[in-house]
Design goal:
The structure is a homotrimer. By secondary structure, chain A is of the alpha+beta class. Chain A is elongated and about 60 Å long. Chains in contact: A-B, A-C, B-C. Chains A and B meet through β2 of A and α1 of B.
Chain lengths: 273, 273, 273
């Protein structure tokens, strides 16, 4: 049995700059046997909601024992808190701004959004640990790059079996975004596109299990029946994608470009389960 | 001696989305000691030919025992088959659409293309294994992401010394593209640009060993003598590049932009060996 | 204690082409336990100065014993030399064109630039080793890709504890760029933007420790007070960034786009320490 711990990174740093490499350098200096995996570094700059969505759809595929570091952090250097969370054997490290929402119990998060978009709000009755013990860091942190100077070293120590409580007091509050799940509107679901992937697929917040089998989805004036897979469709279609959300796709093409749609576009599912 | 097995990934998924990370998560869950290396994830979306070319020019540099997973898969979810191939101690996993052509014996592939472009066709008298035993997967696959749900777990099991025959019946047929080698036209070679690299170098399918020593290549109205290396040339030149194919390059510049040329542009070598 | 050696890669190869993968394939074939980390592959093509700056700001975060391979190499195939350098337990491998400047003693490099931009010049009284023993390579190198054919195999051997002197004679000369440190102009510092990061932050060569506490910086007609962190500012600000250099940033925006500024833009610090 391998004893390597997986440490994942989810950031908006991109790969052009050496920021990610500096985080990995710190991780490997303190946890030389860690296996570091990039989830993505191409979250839209400072888009906490998108980062939360990406992490939510990915963390469960990693082995138990993984440490997930997420840094989309417009509030770096301000008084926003830093958190350690644990769920089902996984550990999460990052700023307290909603980015780590997937690590909170579903029962504590707002079950569906009220308005047209997602935003972070305070939830209570949860268990988290604050990162306050900056004296435990190998060097004093800079004011602008806590990913490298705080979150990476803490993650390395957690991967080496430190306990969350070592780094600060427990707290029962944290910021969280609503669950990514389109709200009900009569017999329909009022979805929204939460991201566009490389293929131009429009990924919505409509959960596959919420959709009636013979339903169709509408985007603008287009009404699209649900197909089982991209290859079945001729042209535009809607499918339940690989992460369980309804996607609008164009076989061998780019649906977002074709439809002039994107993040925030309304997508309605006409018949809910 | 290390016992780590290398698993390589060649896809058109890009790095912006978490799809590659989900594949790595599955690989590390099942083969925790594997060393995963990205060949590229920037194959043009659904361009099987380009994926086949990239894999062909790269796999031999990896150590024997490596498992190569390739997923450029416009037919995902349809009845296209999934294959395991073996060659010179390397194992290849992916869809049966020509992407894994390099793993087939050269003698079975069409030796040179007939027309102006490459395409996949059926070849026979080869040995491959179908991936049919989806009951061996850790969870039922989604209809749209077999890279994560089928190919990654199979690759992890193969890296852990499972046998190809464990996953389905042998087959003697597979799709393959022609060998990447410009056809003869009298004393000349009728080449084509198969990809453009980051530097704007136009990489052709003209093999260096097919070219007469004092030959030149023509692209549009330009006639370019063969140089030994970029640094020797002043301006546009043709060189035998690092993968053995003739490239058209512009010293300290971008040949593709300068010439208005790209994938599919004709490049003629005037004197063949 | 882990015995894995870290090998870092800094290149201008991008991630679209398989060149980086070919280097990793060679590294893992010869040093199967190495841990390979990408610093960046998105250095502007053939921009040796930018590569030198990126490596300089990053190498110290890696553990001692790391081998740093850097390839931004417009002179590949010409008579430019190849070097191995050592500093504080780290080893550096790459072309002799200034890219490895950070591995030379600060005392030997020109302390501040004279003109408006950086360039490589010969420095003396240093200790380096030339890579001449190409007979030690596993196969004869191509004329156009020494990253894969020379630097990667040499790095793998160095990671496996070969000595720099094994590969060629010592030399006391190397190319180096000036230290990245804005020159003095009376009471001011005459800085320049050396790179723009993903967030549009303009990173200058003005060292934080050279700046008087209550100073401001000017870029074009804008005069910006120094803030402690991005979050403190409302709009445009200057901060001492995470690598110790003054940066011009726009809170929740892109300073480079907003100001129409970029690499080479003049940034003046009005009061030096």
């Amino acid at each position: 049995v391998s004893t390597r711990r997986v440490i994942t990174l989810t950031t908006d740093f991109g790969l052009r700059d050496p920021y990610v490499a500096q985080m990995k350098a710190v991780l490997l200096s303190m946890a030389p046997d860690a296996e570091i995996v990039d989830v993505t570094h191409e979250v839209e700059p400072q888009d906490v909601i998108e980062g939360a969505f990406v992490l939510e759809t990915t963390w469960r595929y990693f082995p138990a024992g993984s440490v997930h570091v997420a840094v989309v952090d417009p509030g770096v250097g301000t008084s926003r808190r830093r958190l350690i969370l644990q769920k089902e054997g996984h550990t999460f490290v990052g700023p307290d701004n909603g980015l780590l929402s997937c690590a909170l119990p579903d029962s504590r998060r707002q079950q569906r959004r009220d308005g047209d978009s997602y935003e972070a709000g305070m939830v209570t009755d949860i268990t988290a640990f604050c990162i306050d013990r900056l004296d435990l860091l190998p060097r004093p942190p800079s004011a602008t790059f806590e990913g490298r100077d705080v979150f990476a070293p803490i993650a390395a120590l957690l991967a080496a079996r430190a306990e969350p409580a070592d780094f600060g007091p427990a707290t029962q509050e944290a910021f969280a975004v609503q669950r990514f799940r389109a709200p009900v509107d009569g017999a329909a679901l009022r979805g929204v596109c939460v991201r566009v992937d490389r293929f131009g697929n429009l990924i919505t917040d409509i959960r596959g299990e919420d959709v009636a089998p013979e339903s169709a989805v509408s985007l603008g004036r287009r009404r699209l029946p649900l197909a089982r897979t991209y290859g079945e469709a001729d042209g535009l279609c809607a499918v339940i994608g690989s992460t369980g959300y309804v996607e609008v796709a164009l076989a061998n093409g780019n649906a977002a470009a074709d439809l002039g749609a994107g993040k925030g576009s309304a997508v309605v599912c006409e018949a809910r389960r």
